[in-house]
């Protein structure tokens, strides 16, 4: 009886051991924090464990006992396999996000995203991982000029790779290529893969560096989020923004791992708001910041549907809570004066 109980406990510990790739990033740090709070043992991969930018991970609750950091690179298969060995599941969050124009998209964005994802999946197959959750993006959904203009985009909509190339949208292309390659590999090799596709992610930061989605909000409240449009006037495109809180994304990722019925892809968007309306909402909360004055209207806005994820049990917090928690955390981290 005692042996049976010990074996059951050992199996439970094994089931609650997962690997999170890119553990030091904005989303992954919250995934790690949430996993630790739920009693998981976490293998977190980072490029350089000695780098100060990952110091926040060791300060998380339960990190000293239940977080093991591995030096790994997406393009180094052996390093990934070492990190994944002994885990029951993998949450693949790591992916390059270009901050501006990319001189060499093949090397800087596409290869790490696609080859890196396939390396993760090959290692998962080899060590017999139960389930992989791949954090994709709505970037892999919305770049589809053939989708009916008045139809809400759901999980059946994929970004057109040709359109991404034609418009030189390398991030969208990398996420589309990587997600489609992940599902193709899973199908051919009998691997259980679930994808979560978040929109623009705001929310409090755990790391002390600015990531690309945080930068959008910082620039908006600093009045520096500008783009030159035809006519020579600086203005902000007044597009519809699909927003979601980083904490709600972390919940969605873990839900996609834990729920046996989870399958396929899940759009993860909580709020849709025009940029001008977002700035006005922020102005009411923080009137002392500098906000953009000029906006240019966009021709077409994509509307997204998170109904499938909500049916799985996902809920999200109010936008105002996300905005306040974001700004206050940026101030605390010294990212915003």
UniProtKB/TrEMBL annotation:
<protein>
    <submittedName>
        <fullName>Cinnamoyl-CoA reductase 2-like isoform X1</fullName>
    </submittedName>
</protein>
<dbReference type="InterPro" id="IPR001509">
    <property type="entry name" value="Epimerase_deHydtase"/>
</dbReference>
<dbReference type="InterPro" id="IPR050425">
    <property type="entry name" value="NAD(P)_dehydrat-like"/>
</dbReference>
<dbReference type="Pfam" id="PF01370">
    <property type="entry name" value="Epimerase"/>
</dbReference>
<dbReference type="GO" id="GO:0016616">
    <property type="term" value="F:oxidoreductase activity, acting on the CH-OH group of donors, NAD or NADP as acceptor"/>
</dbReference>
<dbReference type="InterPro" id="IPR036291">
    <property type="entry name" value="NAD(P)-bd_dom_sf"/>
</dbReference>
<keyword id="KW-0521">NADP</keyword>
<feature type="domain" description="NAD-dependent epimerase/dehydratase">
    <location>
        <begin position="18"/>
        <end position="263"/>
    </location>
</feature>
<keyword id="KW-0560">Oxidoreductase</keyword>
């Amino acid at each position: 009886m005692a042996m049976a109980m010990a074996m059951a406990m050992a199996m439970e510990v094994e089931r609650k051991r997962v690997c999170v790739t890119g553990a030091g990033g904005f989303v992954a740090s919250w995934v790690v924090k949430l996993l630790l709070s739920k009693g998981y043992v976490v293998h977190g991969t980072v490029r350089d464990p000695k780098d100060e930018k990952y110091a926040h991970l060791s300060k998380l609750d339960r990190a000293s006992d239940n977080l093991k950091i591995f030096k790994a690179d997406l393009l180094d298969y052996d390093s990934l396999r070492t990190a994944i060995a002994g885990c029951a599941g993998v949450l693949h969050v790591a992916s390059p996000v270009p901050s501006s124009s990319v001189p060499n998209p093949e090397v800087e964005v596409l290869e790490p995203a696609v080859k890196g994802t396939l390396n993760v999946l090959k290692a998962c197959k080899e060590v017999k991982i139960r389930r992989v959750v791949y954090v994709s993006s709505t970037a892999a959904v919305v770049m589809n000029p053939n989708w009916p203009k008045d139809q809400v985009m759901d999980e059946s909509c994929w970004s057109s790779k040709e359109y991404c190339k034609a418009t030189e949208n390398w991030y969208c292309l990398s996420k589309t290529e990587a997600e489609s390659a992940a599902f193709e590999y899973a199908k051919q090799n009998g691997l259980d893969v679930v994808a979560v596709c978040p929109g623009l992610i705001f929310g409090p930061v755990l790391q002390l560096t600015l990531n690309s989605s945080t930068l959008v909000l910082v620039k908006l409240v600093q009045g520096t989020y500008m783009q030159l449009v035809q006519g020579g006037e600086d203005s902000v495109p007044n597009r519809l923004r699909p927003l979601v809180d980083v904490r709600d994304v972390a919940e969605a990722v873990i839900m996609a791992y834990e729920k046996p019925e989870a399958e396929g892809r899940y759009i993860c968007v909580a709020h849709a708001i025009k940029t001008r309306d977002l700035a006005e909402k922020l102005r009411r909360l923080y009137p002392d910041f500098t906000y953009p004055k000029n906006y240019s209207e966009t021709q077409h806005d994509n509307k997204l549907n998170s109904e499938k994820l909500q049916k799985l049990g996902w809920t999200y917090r109010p936008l105002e809570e996300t905005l306040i928690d974001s700004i206050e955390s940026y101030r605390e981290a010294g990212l915003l004066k």
